[in-house]
Amino acid sequence: MDALNNLALGFSVAFDPMNLLYVFIGVVVGTAIGVLPGLGPTATIALLLPVTLTLDPTAAVILLAGIYYGSMYGGTITSVLLRLPGEAASVVTTFDGYQMARQGRAGPALGISAIGSFVGGTVSVIGLVLLAPVLADAALAFGPPAFVALMVLGLFLVTSLGTGSTIKALCMAAVGLLLSAIGQDLVTGKPRFTFGQTSLFDGLDFVAVSMGLFGVGEILYNLEQTEKVQAFTSKIKNIWPSRKDLKDSSGAIARGSVLGFFIGILPGGGGVLSSLASYAMEKRRAKDPSRFGHGAIEGVAGPETANNASSTSGFIPLLVLGIPSNVVLALLFGALLVHGITPGPQMMTNHPEVFWGVIASMFIGNLMLLALNIPLVGFFVQMLRIRAGILVTFAVLVVMVGVFSISNDVFDMWVVLVFGIIGWIMKKTGFDPGPLVLAFVLGPILESSVRQSLLLSGGSFTIFVTDPISLTIFIALGAGVILGFVGRGRRRLVANKQEKVAAE
Amino acid sequence: MFTNRARSQWPRVIPIILLLVGVAAMIGAYQLSLGQLNQPGAGLWPFIVGAFLTLTAAVLFFVQDPSECEQWNRRALGIVAGLASLGLFIVLFQMIGFLIPAFLMLALWLKTFGEEPWRLAVPLAVAGAVVMHFLFVVALGVPFPKDIVVTLFSALGV
Amino acid sequence: MNKKIARTAGVFASVGIMSAAVVGCGNTAGAQSGAGYPSEKIRFIIPYAAGGPTDVTARALAPCLGKELGQSVVAENVAGGSGALGMQKLISSKADGYTVAIVSTGMTVLTPLVNGLDYSKEDITPIGVISHVPMNLVVGKDSPYKDAKAFIAAAKANPGKLNVGVSGASTPQAIELQRLEEQYGVDITVVPFDGSAGATTALLGGHADAAFINDAPEVSDRIEDGSFKALAVSSEERQKHLPDTPTLVELGYPDLTLAVTTYALAGPAGLPEEATSKLAGSLETCLKDSKTVEIIGERFVPEKFDDAETLKGILDEGATVYKTMLKK
């Protein structure tokens, strides 16, 4: 079989001792970077890219890819422990992960994430080997109108997150969309709401906004309520996921793997959507959806798995079509170009050792990450025993410096500070930052796809009906909304009854 | 703000602020030119979003449940002081580099929010500032603003 | 408790050491070596993020420049505002030859005009051209348009119906297509995508009729394997690897030659003569270095070195055209 021969070649490359070392360094640095709030994979790979120029191309890409998926593991840790999501996909993890940590179940949350990420990553690598060329072409069918439909779907999913009321979520989503409109207009190039600030031309940085709203906002809130900080750190129930935890999340992990794999292939912005979709799916399937947002383990397992699966399958458009679907993959694209290798249809034939070597290294890398992360869970959980004041102080400083390193701009530090204040006030007034931050991510893709669609169709909205994918998604969405209303009405009745009982 | 009446009413301020932001966004977007559907202008999308925000904020004003909100207390003033110190950190960071502002910020926060004694706060702050300097500047090569401490040391030939 | 603090510190320290092991020491300051320029390390600003074409070109050049000048040339990405942040950083640094940048016509001339920024080409000292990257007008392999003539005829017959993807709004190539419409009455709809990759995706998926994108290796690969067809190139002369593809000039649009990304080396305004000539000399030598040229792209590097004067001419022409275009 061809795939097997190729894979054998890949493994012979990946098992080269030097390459093994680079996989290892990659995943270790990735994990470490993911743990440092503010310093995400984008900043790190950008910083390390020049160094890899001295390596041979396979080693360079193996190393950088290792950092990328390693940081996906690492990013979970801060989301769970400190509610500091360093990238869009882990925003979803904060909902139940952080709640689990507050209930003393940080260990199981981190453990199940590591296991889920491993499964998701591995499933995705297998899918990559077997299905890459077929799927890459299929993904191209997703044009601007299909993306509009996907983003609208994403926004609907956003409002189903968290525990607050729907109207509050909608309101915050509107704020997020508005904030994402800041910066240069994609189509006309006009600066919008930039108030003459050059730093605002590219818009607000996601990491700065999310670190401010979630992390700093949460820290400020906790500082205001001293007693809670103390209570939070004292109890750590168990470090490993129990058998029940594993059983509860196995379905979520299986579904997350498949969902993440397919969403990740779409050119442009799979990551957030995959974790969002997985969360929404788990919440919908659950017998008691009200547990979500209060520490449901499936709400951590599913999205984390989907996130990792999609970050691996994101390599399909890069390696097969030469299309980087996110910023990190764009950096890897550049790294390959510098080495004289053009990612794209000819890469498989011209540089099979790089292509299959990188894929095989991902197998090994995921295994290493699992081996690395399981013992580390215990270690990171111990971090919660550090006195809150010390932990929080250092976290704030690392966040500040981390966001500076995104584009070496002091402006981003002010952004963190301002959004920290907003996040604090939101927390006090019962608003969830999740919908805001996720709408902030989806907004620009939605806007540009809408405008591209309208340009393509000459201003006619029929394009959303004539495009088969967009039509399918919109129909499904419509059906979902109607069913959702019916379901919610029923659930509310039940909930009201329960509340009455509980009140007595 | 601390009178009784204001206490129960203050959360109502939030939808009003959001409403004003929405209206301001619509006005700003209108000035950016809305264009037409086959030739959408820069302002069309922000205008739609602004309208959406205005609408949701208006609904929120009437349905908001003030009991979800927490009251202000004296400790909030401490938080404001903490925020001011962070602002000062950013300003100083830009002027004199990382090490001194980082030390000051760490020491202050450890002492006030962490309620650690000085004999622990000061060494921790020194260690934290130095370790982070090495991590970000030396290891990762992040170009921090020129640091007066580093300049001083290199001038002394250390 | 102290033990735990020590442990946390340990995490931070070990992360530092691990990263240091990977990074090595890129920041060793150049030793003071005798008099004259350059006597210390040179900062090389790249106004775009790592990994993009600007970055690739600059990174390819930096080591050779360093070797020629006898000082390390430290590349630094200052991304943001379509190159504006990096440009402003360059302009605000001391004009002593220790800060240079890779610049393009877009960021020097177009960006300040579009965004109403208060810098212009007068704020930099041009040193020399690194490369000229032309644009290709390409269609998919199943496109009904066999050549440029057929495409343009179709565009004229159905005004506004043909969609051409470009890598972004307010890029030189988008403006060039606008000029095609305004000066020559070829009414096509320009659809800006997110970078060349976005435009390529749209063309491959059949969502756009054509794309007007950089002649980057990933595009020429596709032309070679037949999945794209090149209808026209934007350079003044035909491209060596596409001998059968006419230029826009040949097709009857003599002044549509601005859709070429020119990468150049520049310093802040008022660079001392010694520094300028030394940098220009090193650049000229480096553009003959086979390893450097291979990464930048052999066909993009001009055969004869384009000096500061030529570069100035290119920037002036761009400025004139863009000013009149954007006034409308």
Labels describing this entry:
heterotrimer; A: 504 residues; mainly alpha; 77% helix; 1% strand; B: 158 residues; 2 strands; 71% helix; 3% strand; flat; disordered N terminus
How would you describe what is shown here?
The complex is a heterotrimer of chains A (504), B (158) and C (328). Chain A has two domains: 2-466, no CATH class; 471-504. Chain A is 77% helix and 1% strand. Chain A has helices spanning 2-14, 17-35, 41-52, 57-82, 88-102, 106-139, 144-159, 166-180, 206-224, 226-234, 243-265, 271-285, 298-313, 315-321, 327-338, 347-350, 352-383, 388-407, 411-428, 433-457, 463-466, 468-503, and strands spanning 183-184, 191-192. Residues 227-234 of chain A have low confidence and may be disordered. With 158 residues, chain B is mostly helical. Chain B is 71% helix and 3% strand. Chain B has helices spanning 4-9, 13-31, 44-63, 74-96, 99-112, 118-139, 148-155, and strands spanning 35-36, 39-40. With 328 residues, chain C is α/β, with parallel strands linked by helices. Chain C has a domain at 40-133 and 261-327: 3-Layer(aba) Sandwich (D-Maltodextrin-Binding Protein, domain 2), CATH 3.40.190.150. Chain C has helices spanning 2-23, 53-69, 84-92, 105-115, 148-157, 172-184, 195-204, 217-224, 273-286, 290-296, 308-327, and strands at residues 42-46, 73-77, 99-104, 124-140, 163-166, 189-192, 210-214, 228-233, 260-268. In chain C, strands 1, 2, 3, 4, 5, 6, 7, 8 and 9 form a nine-stranded mixed β-sheet that branches.
Q: How is this fold's topology laid out?
A:
The complex is a heterotrimer of chains A (504), B (158) and C (328).
Chain A: H1 2-14, H2 17-35, H3 41-52, H4 57-82, H5 88-102, H6 106-139, H7 144-159, H8 166-180, E1 183-184, E2 191-192, H9 206-224, H10 226-234, H11 243-265, H12 271-285, H13 298-313, H14 315-321, H15 327-338, H16 347-350, H17 352-383, H18 388-407, H19 411-428, H20 433-457, H21 463-466, H22 468-503
Antiparallel strand pairs in A: 1-2
Helix pairs in contact in A: 1-17, 2-4, 2-17, 3-4, 3-15, 4-5, 4-6, 4-13, 4-15, 4-17, 5-6, 5-12, 5-13, 5-20, 6-11, 6-13, 6-14, 6-17, 7-12, 7-20, 7-22, 8-20, 9-18, 9-19, 9-20, 11-12, 11-13, 12-13, 18-19
Chain B: H1 4-9, H2 13-31, E1 35-36, E2 39-40, H3 44-63, H4 74-96, H5 99-112, H6 118-139, H7 148-155
Antiparallel strand pairs in B: 1-2
Chain C: H1 2-23, E1 42-46, H2 53-69, E2 73-77, H3 84-92, E3 99-104, H4 105-115, E4 124-140, H5 148-157, E5 163-166, H6 172-184, E6 189-192, H7 195-204, E7 210-214, H8 217-224, E8 228-233, E9 260-268, H9 273-286, H10 290-296, H11 308-327
Helix pairs in contact in C: 2-9, 2-10, 4-11
